Amino acid sequence: MKPQLNELVKLAKDKHNETKKFFDKLKKKPPKNLDYIMQDLHEAEFKKTDCLQCANCCKTTGPLFTTADIERISKYFKQKPQQFIDNYLRIDEENDYVLQNLPCTFLDTDNTCFIYDVRPKACREFPHTDRKKFQQISNLTLKNVAICPAAYNIVEEMKKKLP
Q: Which of 54, 62, 146, 160 is the most buried (most CB within 10 A)?
């Protein structure tokens, strides 16, 4: 089932407790081949998912910007890092650099990214479903299933594969 974006938050909320229990069990005893399973599920989902049709992650959440991200992007804009920070970023409650505003400043009307080639690491890796030691980021994944239809589908497939 491919959830519609307007249904995604409700679906994720309805399955939140079930998914949380599943992840808690996974953390306690992750299968030896979990990384391979996740890689396969991730690749299969992104063969049929076009992020440009959605871009909900760019519209509703902002990435963390690492020092390396700030240096790379400011160089791309031919600015000093502090100038980039002043123009686009703020420090959040966890002392991380995040965007001043949402949707993302760098998102174009056709859902493409103005800075795609130099985008932050968090954007390049989103929704993080192909990460090694996936079980360690289950709290992040719980949030991402309400944002990203692909993450939702991957987790639902994962529940079927790893009962």
A: 62
